[in-house]
Design brief:
Blueprint (H helix, E strand, L loop, with lengths): L1 E5 L4 H12 L4 E5 L14 E4 L5 H10 L2 E6 L6 H6 L1 H21 L4 E7 L22 H20 L2 E7 L1 E3 L17 H10 L5 E4 L11 E2 L1 E3 H16 L5 E5 L5 E2 H12 L5 E4 L8 E2 L4 H7 L8 H14 L8
Parallel strand pairs: 1-2, 1-4, 2-3, 4-5, 5-6, 6-11, 7-10, 8-13, 9-14
Antiparallel strand pairs: 9-12
Helix pairs in contact: 1-7, 2-4, 4-5, 6-8, 6-10, 8-10
The chain binds uridine-5'-diphosphate.
EC number: 5.1.3.2
Pathway: Carbohydrate metabolism; galactose metabolism
Enzyme class: isomerase
Length: 330
């Protein structure tokens, strides 16, 4: 039986696929390459190019392959874009989830692990954020993911499709050998932008606001290494395979870093100056997002290996230096 990784050519999905291959697990990838890269997936892995909202395409994949678990990464994830194009997010993320679950129901596939997000909490009630805290998104991206969480709950109740929803905080870093990494076009995420400045591909970083309610006024986020994140998904697969019930887990480091602290860590990790200037706030950004991640550590036995943000940045820097133009396919 195979694990179907939907969105396996994306940043997090490709790290998951590589990890699964390393562990000799059977993997099949689906990706529409709208934001992913064919070059991020090993040529030896079975790859279907297509969109999960295309019923005929998805049915064909489930007909052809013996799939027992789905890991779903295929979603848009850019907060500011979602503020401008909310329907794009409800279509791809929320409706995409419905299409995927319909196919799983029709093919009797009973397990799914999927990417949720800290953005489902909106402005947190308290810090660190626990899984049981109020979910009240302040942007369409978070709302689209919260809807996915709600839909899967009812699909579980009606069809017995068991799920693990993983609420990611801020994902960063790359495969330590520099073979795969983060490459979005256009890039909006903090770490790769900082490293493009370090590389000289951008003049300076714009820090989006320094008047937030945080110690230095810049947004605080909880950064977790992409491989630690991939490992949590593998633990979640085994957790469901062991017959455990559906559940939701935060994935973060439980430590917050401000934008200014990230720039400082990147200066140390790269030895580069990294000029930065304060710019206007970006719409949709909460002051601070820090995970309580004890639940994943306790129940999934998740044991993240990267606890130093500088080490996380170093792995991304290795990828950036080896691939200054990313995958060179856009
Ligand atoms: N950020 C910034 N300058 C940039 C990109 C991001 O100051 O060029 C800030 C952003 O406002 C947020 C943090 O960095 O506070 C992380 O943003 P990112 O887009 O990486 O992730 P998000 O938190 O939106 O998922």
């Amino acid at each position: 039986m195979s694990i179907l990784v939907v969105g396996g050519a994306g940043y997090i999905g490709s790290h998951m696929v590589k990890r699964l291959v390393e562990q000799n697990r059977d993997v099949v990838v689906v990706d529409n390459l709208s934001t992913g890269h064919r070059g991020a997936v090993d040529k030896g892995v079975k790859f279907y190019e297509g969109d999960i909202r295309d019923h005929a395409f998805l049915k064909e994949v489930f007909d052809q392959e013996a799939i027992d678990t789905v890991v779903h990464f295929a979603a848009f994830s850019i907060v500011p874009e979602s503020m401008e194009k909310p329907l794009k997010y409800f279509d791809n993320n929320t409706a995409g989830m419905v299409a995927l679950l319909e196919e799983m129901r029709d093919h009797d596939v009973k397990r799914i692990i999927f990417s949720s997000t800290a953005a489902t909490y909106g402005v947190p009630e308290k810090s660190p954020i626990e899984e049981t805290d109020r979910q009240a998104p302040i942007n369409p991206y978070g709302e689209s993911k919260l809807m996915m969480e709600k839909i899967i709950k009812w699909a579980d109740q009606a069809y017995g499709i068991k799920f693990v929803a993983l609420r990611y905080f801020n994902v960063a870093g790359a495969y330590p050998d520099g073979s795969i990494g983060e490459d979005h076009g256009p890039e909006t995420h903090l770490t790769p932008i900082i490293l493009q400045v370090a590389l000289g591909k951008r003049d300076q970083l714009q820090i989006f606001g320094d008047d937030y309610h945080t110690p230095d006024g810049t947004n605080v986020r909880d950064y977790v290494h992409v491989l630690d994140l991939a490992d949590a998904h593998i633990l979640a697969i085994d957790y469901l395979k062991a017959g455990n019930d559906s559940d939701v887990f935060n994935l973060g480091s439980s430590t917050g870093f401000s934008v200014k602290e990230m720039v400082e860590a990147a200066r140390e990790a790269t030895g580069e100056a990294i000029p930065a200037k304060i710019a206007a706030r970006r719409p949709g950004d909460p002051d601070s997002l820090i995970a309580a991640s004890q639940k994943a550590r306790k129940i999934l036995k998740w044991n993240p290996q990267y606890d130093d943000v500088k080490e996380i940045i170093k792995t991304a820097w290795n990828w950036t230096q080896k691939h200054p133009n990313g995958y060179e396919d856009h």
